[in-house]
Amino acid sequence: MAPVQHGRGVFTCAGCDLPLFQSKTKFDSGTGWPSFFAPMDDAVRTSNDYSLVIPRTEVHCRRCGGHLGHVFDDGPRPTGKRYCMNGVALKFQPAA
Questions:
Q1: Fewest CB within 10 angstroms: 4, 29, 57, 92, which?
Q2: CA atoms of 7 and 5, how far apart (whole Å)
Q3: Which residues contact residue 93 at a Cβ distance below 8 angstroms, ignoring those fewer than 6 apart?
């Protein structure tokens, strides 16, 4: 499991290094998964996921298509979104 990151920097796709989330959008959702209220511009795509009884919205990398996690409508302001990501799908690049 990837270590928890609380510093300033950017979370990138573990598959292709595309920048996905800025650390300033990260928050503690209480779920144990890295959570963000917004991705970077043009970084992710979504699709419908019907693999469980309740439909979910899957989040994947725009460039390589790698599965990142799911997005829910119970996040904080300003977006109200909770991008609940799989920590092993992300790499952290600390700010200089």
A1: 4
A2: 6
A3: 9, 10, 11, 12, 19
Token pair belonging to 37: 């209220």
The overall longest dimension of the chain from CA atoms, in Å, is 44
- Over the stretch 25-78, which tens digit does the pLDDT of each residue have? 999 999 999 999 999 999 999 999 999 889 999 999 999 999 999 999 999 999
CA 40 to CA 79: how far, in whole Å?
13
Q: Is the pLDDT of residue 1 over 50?
A: no
List C-alpha distances in Å: 33 to 74, 87, 88. 14, 7, 10
CA dist 71 and 8 (Å) reads 22
* Torsion angle, alpha carbons of 54, 23, 37, 61, to 10: -50
- Kind of pairing between the strands at 19-22 and 56-61: unpaired
Active site positions, annotated: 84
